[in-house]
Each structure stands twice: as C-alpha cells, then as structure tokens.
Design brief:
Helix content: 55-70%
Shape: globular
Largest sheet: none
Order of helices and strands: HHHHHHH
Number of strands: 0
Structural class: mainly alpha
Strand content: under 5%
C-alpha cells in the first residue's frame, strides 16, 4: 500500500488522544509525587471514554484491516497503525478487545496476514 499522509496524521492524533504520547516525556518529568487515587481513576475514565469513542467510530476495525492489508511489510504507516492499535488497547480495555474479537471471528481469513506480520517481525 502506498503511504497516505492524511491517514498517518489521523492515526498519530488518535493514538495520542488515548495517551499514546512518548513515554520518554513522562519519565523526564522527574521524581514528583504520583497522582492521587482519585486522579488516577479520573485518568482511567478519560482513557476508557476516548478508546470507546474511537471504537464507536470504527478505529478498531480500521486498525485490524490495515494491518491485515499490509501483509507483513513494515512501513511508517504500519508502525503508526500498530501504535494506534496499542493505544486503543492500553489498560486492557475489554470493550475494544471484544470488538476486535468479533471482527476476527467474522473475517478469519483476512487476519492470517495480521498474525503473520507479528510472526515475521518476531514480536
């Protein structure tokens, strides 16, 4: 597949909306006191809301379909898509896992490429 700059920008924005920002930035903030339990719960609820909103708009399906279509070829678009997939699954979001499982059940043949990608990349 040819690179699509618009797709890459959207995948990056969607990923960041689910807390997919670089972890290095978080580590550089220093040894400050951690967030309270209330703040952690609020962050978790925000994350779940963003992930669910993206899932309702078809991002989970788009992610799996694109990874399947890449047929194991590593490219910047594939890596952006993987980051997006990781960000919508961050925190073990069961709702997203169920969506992805239903898609896989309906389209098993297409997703052989998805699993081959990970096998070829030794992930």
């Amino acid at each position: 597949m040819s690179e699509d700059d618009l797709y890459m920008h959207y995948a990056d924005i969607f990923s960041k909306s689910c807390g997919g920002a670089d972890e290095d930035e978080e580590e550089e903030e220093g040894e400050e006191e951690g967030p309270s339990i209330h703040e952690q719960e609020m962050e978790k609820q925000k994350l779940l809301f963003q992930q669910s909103r993206l899932a309702n708009r078809g991002v989970a399906e788009m992610t799996l379909l694109y990874i399947s279509a890449c047929k194991g070829v590593q490219s910047p678009m594939t890596m952006n898509t993987l980051r997006l997939g990781i960000s919508i699954l961050k925190g073990g979001n069961v709702e997203i896992q169920k969506v992805m499982s239903r898609i896989r059940t309906f389209q098993k043949i297409m997703f052989v490429s998805f699993f081959n990608f990970f096998h070829l990349q030794n992930i």
